[in-house]
Write a structure and sequence with these properties.
By secondary structure, this protein is mostly helical. It has helices at residues 2-18, 29-50, 59-80, 83-91, 93-114, 122-148, 168-200, and strands at residues 159-161, 164-166. It has a two-stranded antiparallel sheet with strand order 1-2. Helix 3 packs parallel to helix 6.
């Protein structure tokens, strides 16, 4: 099961990085958002599930890692969606590579910090749930801002994505909706799952 998740995550990553999203459609913001969500919300959690995690004798370790990992994800995501950095990533293949690498690193850091380990207790589950729900909130906010902003932030001309011509405004709105439907939903589902696991975990008996 773990190996299958890891292989599937690597396949998704290869599809995103080697397909047309970052090549033929690199000028499209919605294509960028599909690539972004494919990396952080699909490939990263699958790879994190597939990476063997050792036991965690100290539950406080999970608590101290999960929240900083969520903060790192927030900084990475919001920074690369600033108009100046977005323009840089569109114009430079090297910048695109750095962008995608930081997306993957931040996504893996967060999911590995939040996923429960053998020996973890409700404290670790609570920290992971809070971190994933916090990430869902900031992705919801960013997605809504992108979808509802009355002017385009990333260019002015028409772009093509999946063979469909879109204005800059339409392209940005579609990208925001993709973030809402994929990113915010996946992190919300992860946080709710960990929260349910926490409630279902019986308290440890003290001697």
């Amino acid at each position: 099961m773990r190996r299958a998740c890891l292989v599937l995550g690597l396949l998704v990553l290869a599809l995103v990085w080697l397909g047309p999203l970052l090549d033929a459609w690199r000028d499209s913001f919605s294509a960028h958002m599909l690539a972004h969500m494919g990396v952080v919300a699909i490939a990263a959690p699958l790879m994190a599930i597939g990476i063997p995690l050792g036991a965690t004798p100290d539950a406080s370790r999970s608590f101290t890692l999960a929240l900083p990992a969520s903060l790192v994800e927030l900084i990475v995501v919001w920074s690369w969606h600033a108009p100046a950095l977005r323009a840089l990533a569109e114009s430079s293949l090297f910048a695109t590579a750095i962008e995608q690498a930081t997306f993957l690193a931040a996504g893996l850091f967060l999911w590995l910090a939040c996923l429960p380990r053998r020996g973890s207790d409700t404290t670790g589950n609570a920290a992971g749930a809070f971190a994933l729900l916090l990430t869902s909130i900031h992705m919801t906010l960013l997605g809504a801002l992108l979808a509802l902003t009355p002017r385009p932030l990333y260019g002015t001309g028409e772009v093509s994505c999946f063979g469909v011509a879109l204005s800059a405004q339409q392209d940005q709105e579609l990208g925001g909706v993709i973030m809402l439907l994929v990113g915010a939903a996946v992190y919300l589902a992860g946080g709710v799952t960990l929260f349910a696991r926490m409630l279902a975990t019986p308290p440890r008996k003290t001697v």
